[in-house]
Each structure stands twice: as structure tokens, then as C-alpha cells.
Amino acid sequence: MLQILLKKQGFSHGICTTPLLLLITCSNQEDEVEPIVRAVDIGRGNTKFIAGVSDGDVRCAMFPSQAHPCETVYEQEAWGMKRRTVCVPVDDLNYEVGPDAHLASDIFNANVLQHDSYSATPEYLALLLGALHYMRLDRIDLLVLGLPVATYKLKKQVAALERRVTGEHILAEGRKITIARVKAIAQPSGALMYCGLTHGRLAQMRKERNLIIDPGRRTFDWLVTQGMQQIDKRSHSVPRGMFDVLHTIIEGISRATGSHYREYDAIDLALRTGKKPVIFQKEYDIAQHLPLAQKIPEQAVAEMLHYVGDAADIKNIILVGGGAFFYRKALKTAFPHHELQELKDPIFANVKGFQYAGTELAKQADTSSARTDGTDRLNMAP
Hints:
Oligomer: single chain
């Protein structure tokens, strides 16, 4: 199964620890039938998911984390290009999600997930159902989800999410899917698994102390582990992600132009490519706003240092997440004696790690059931 995750990247030391990944019971399977495992990482910027697993390949895909509510299902126009979205029902509304969801969203809906309780919103469930729709399955034995570290510590909220997702759901076009088992884990833990795989050091990292840093759209997460066990008191997250960086720049643009500028995606693209955004038909130089925007990573890292210290006891510092490029400078300043390990595929690192972990856990549960002839099921609740 290690090869499955690596072949394709396209679409205690005296400290109280908490297991990152617990053994999970899976539904009884027929002999020689592997349980179906999938992973979804719903971030505040993008929804990443495992689109398919076949012939030793894992295919990843993603779409913007935007869900546009409407009373009726959107009907595609007969002329022109059809937008790449689907409509999924949640409660009494339909939500349009997918790669082209920005064509349906208004400016007030685009950033609805930028708060700490986002996993309890209808929009979160709509994004999840959209990802499940694109998987083209009617059953999943184990679904692995990721949450920010601070949210993952709130066990009641984690349990509520797992209960909410378990069971049967209606997808787009009237299709249905049954989720037999759900496990939510801290988002950076997936990156830890994936890093060990890509560098061929998983066995060694199980014996070492690690720091995984994940600057996302809304939160800046960090996870300190001893091997694969989370050290709770040194792990956390703060709401100082790329959204705050973009918001700082956008406020500066609004003041400079005397407008109410709100094009977050355009500024995000400008930061990543170095190309000037076009505002009021002219190229706009955002360099004047970068010194203030750079304070966001500095503030996030400063908060992390309260928990991590100088990291003298840390063997591996791993940087992942969509905002890694903008936080790199502040992190290198904070840890001058360490080498930052960066993955080539930082956006999909978590979800690929989730898939690997879920597959191994499902196999362990299946093997244990087989050893006991199915009479003594694994029971390791969080």
C-alpha cells in the first residue's frame, strides 16, 4: 500500500501523549475483499479528496471550498460551456459545489467557512457530499476526515462530526452513498505519514520527535509528536492563516483605491505567481502592502513558539499546506538551527496521508477480526 500513495501525485519520553490514529473497527467483509477506504480534507480554501484508487494508483482532486445555497437545483444553460458543478441537498436547501462554484457564489457566501465552527455548518456537509459524489461510489467502509488541531482537541465536536457523517446520504442527481465508519483526525498528522512515505523514513520517524507545521487558509496548525503520537500540550492551531494575509492586503487595496475590493482569489494568485493583479483595468503593485501582510506569519509563529520553544528536542520539522510558501521566511527565522522539510505536493500531503493511514487501520481491524473468527471485534474508542 505504500506504493499506492507514491506512484501518482496528479489530480515516552515521560510525556503524556494522545494517539493520532486509533484502530478502527470496519464492517465485516467477505473473504479477500478489501474494505473501501477514502479520505477527504475539507479546508477553508480547498476541498481535497481521493478521487480513485485502482491498479496501484491513487488519484487526488480538489475544488474550491465554496458552497452556494439555492432553493432549487441549478439547471445548466443549453448554450455555452456547462459549469463544472453539482447540486447536493442539505437540510431544506440545495448547495452548488465543484470546480466552478465561484460562478454561482456571491461575495458574501465565498468565505462562509472562515470561522472556528465550520465543520458543523451545512456548507461543510455540502462540500463533503460534493467530494463523495465525484468519487462515484455507493459505499465507503471507512472515511477519514481532517480537522484543525484546536478543533480536534474538542472531542465532543469531533464525535458529533463523525456521527453526522456516518450513515446514508443523498448526493447529486438522486444518487445515494452509505458511510459505514468515519474517523476524524488532526490535519497535520496526514502530512506526517506522507512525509515518512515519500522520504522512505516512516520506520525511523516512528521513533523520533516531529513538528508538523500546516499554514492553511484559515488556521495555522502545528503538531508535535513522539513518533505517531500527538503531544497535546505542545500542539495547537490559531486563526492566522492565508485568509488573514489576503484580508490584510485587500484592506490596503481598498484604502488605496477608495473602493470595497474583495477579490481574494486574485490576490492569492498574485502572491503565488508574482504577477500583478488587474484592478480597475490597470495592473496594481501589491508590494506596498506586503510588509504588513508579513506580520501575519510572524504573529502565528510567535504564538507557536509559546508551545514549541526553540525546538531543540525536535528531530524533524515538516512544512506543508497551501500557505507554506508565504510562511517559510518567518519559520526559518524562528528555527535557524533546523532544516525545514518541504514536500513537493504540500496541498495534497494531508489527504494522501489520511488515505494511507485509513487503509492500514482498516487492514489491521480486518486482520484482528479474522484472528478471532469475527467474535472479538476491535474496540478502541478515542
